[in-house]
C-alpha cells in the first residue's frame, strides 16, 4: 500500500527536494508536503520540521529560505508541511491572513462545530505526518532525532508543539513568532472561531507566552530571532515572550533582536544558517 | 525629477533588496525591477545583471536563487529586470511559456507591426535600464564594472547581449541557456512573431550558437551550467553550444554538465555561488 504519492523531485545540493501528496485522515482532505532528503550518508539524517506562517503553503520555505545548503551540510532531512487543511468547503471560511480559514490553521485542534471536522493541525503535524515520515523514510532518517522551528504563526506552532509533545522534538527555534495570540486581535479572532468564544482556557493552551511561563519539564534552550523593522512588530509581542521566559528558570531564551530586518524571507534567509546549525548541534548532543 | 519609484525594501545579508517601478520609454509601459544593494563599502560595488527565463518576472531570481549572500560577500550590486513589457494589450498575445507574449520577451528588439511598439527588450536592458541604474546608483556602484548572466531564455539573453554590446559587460555566464533558438520549435515560433516569418538573418542575430560561432572580438570566457536531467534538455541544444564554441578560438567555454539536476531554481541555487564568484573574479581583474 502506498501512503504517499510523489508529485515532483529536484536534485539540489547533492540531495533531493521532493513534493508529496497524501490523504490525511486527521484533516479529512488531501494534503501536500515538501521534504529535502540529503545525499546518502553513513549516518541516518536528523529530521528538522519547519512550520510556515499565515498564507503560506508547503512551498514558501523550501523555495525562499536558502535552508537546503545548510541542511545538506549538516545531514538534515527537512520536512515542510502545509499550514491548514485544503480543498474543502467551509461556509464563510476566509482565505486571508487574518483568518480563520485556509493558510491559517494555527497548528491547533479545533473544537467548534464549524471547524473541527478538518482543522486538526496539531494532531496532523505531531501524530499523523510524524508517523508517516518515520515510516516512509525509516531507511534514511533517525526516527529518534526530530527538531522543530517555524516563522510567525509557525513560530507559535513550533513553540507550542515542542512544549505540548514533551520530548518528541529535541530542540526548538522561531523566527518572529506570534508569541502571545490571546493579546493579538487577529490571532484571537481565529482562536475564537476554532476554539469557541468563551473558552479562554483553551486559547491559553496554544499561547506560547502562557505555555512558556507555566512550563515545568526538563530545561531547554529557545532561540528566537525578531526583526526590529518587522511590520507586525506590535502584534507579535516579542517583549511578552522575553518576560514569560524570564519568569521561568527552566527556559534559556536566546533572543536576538535583528536591527533593521522586516518579517519576510529576505530576513529569514539571512539567519537560516544559524538556526539550522543550532538544531544540528542539539540533535547531535 | 524622480525617475523611479520605490515599491518595497527589505534588509538582507546586511544590504537591502529593493523593488522599483518606472515608466519605460523604450517599452512604452510601466516596468518593475529588483536590485540588491550590498552594505556600504569603501569600494564601489560591481554590478551583476541576471536575466530570467520564460514566464518569470523580476521576482523569481531574487527570491529563489540564494544569490544575495554571495552578492553581499563579494560587494556585488544585483539587477533583476522583468522578462517582457507588462500591462499592455496586444491581440492574441499569449501569456504562456511557448510565447510570444508576456514573460517571453527574448531580450530582442521586435520589428513586426504587431509587437514592435512594446517588445524592445534588447534596448530596454542594454540602454534604458543600464543608463538608469548608472544614474540612480552612481554613488554606490562602479559604472565601469557590469557583468551579466541568466537562465534559460535569460541565458540566451545574457550571451546575446554580452556579444552584441561589445565590452559593455565584463563577463558572462548562463544556466541552461536556450542556445540555438532557430533550431527549437517554441523559440522559433516566438522569433517569427517578433522578427517576421521570412527574416532568417534577423533570427540569427539573436541566436547564441550563431553569435558565438561568428564572434570576432576580444577573447572571452563563457561559463555554462546544464543539468543532465533538465526536462527541456533536447530543446536547449547544449551540444550545439559546445560545437559552436569549439569552432571559435576566441571563446573559452567552461561547460559543466551537472549530473541529475533539472531546469529549476533548486538546481540554480546549488551552483549560484560558483557563478557569482566567477563574475566577481572577472570584475576585479
UniProtKB/TrEMBL annotation, chains A, B:
<feature type="active site" description="Charge relay system">
    <location>
        <position position="263"/>
    </location>
</feature>
<feature type="active site" description="Charge relay system">
    <location>
        <position position="230"/>
    </location>
</feature>
<dbReference type="GO" id="GO:0005829">
    <property type="term" value="C:cytosol"/>
</dbReference>
<dbReference type="GO" id="GO:0046294">
    <property type="term" value="P:formaldehyde catabolic process"/>
</dbReference>
<keyword id="KW-0963">Cytoplasm</keyword>
<protein>
    <recommendedName>
        <fullName>S-formylglutathione hydrolase</fullName>
        <ecNumber>3.1.2.12</ecNumber>
    </recommendedName>
</protein>
<feature type="active site" description="Charge relay system">
    <location>
        <position position="152"/>
    </location>
</feature>
<dbReference type="Pfam" id="PF00756">
    <property type="entry name" value="Esterase"/>
</dbReference>
<keyword id="KW-0719">Serine esterase</keyword>
<dbReference type="GO" id="GO:0018738">
    <property type="term" value="F:S-formylglutathione hydrolase activity"/>
</dbReference>
<comment type="similarity">
    <text>Belongs to the esterase D family.</text>
</comment>
<dbReference type="InterPro" id="IPR014186">
    <property type="entry name" value="S-formylglutathione_hydrol"/>
</dbReference>
<dbReference type="InterPro" id="IPR029058">
    <property type="entry name" value="AB_hydrolase_fold"/>
</dbReference>
<keyword id="KW-0378">Hydrolase</keyword>
<comment type="function">
    <text>Serine hydrolase involved in the detoxification of formaldehyde.</text>
</comment>
<dbReference type="InterPro" id="IPR000801">
    <property type="entry name" value="Esterase-like"/>
</dbReference>
<dbReference type="GO" id="GO:0052689">
    <property type="term" value="F:carboxylic ester hydrolase activity"/>
</dbReference>
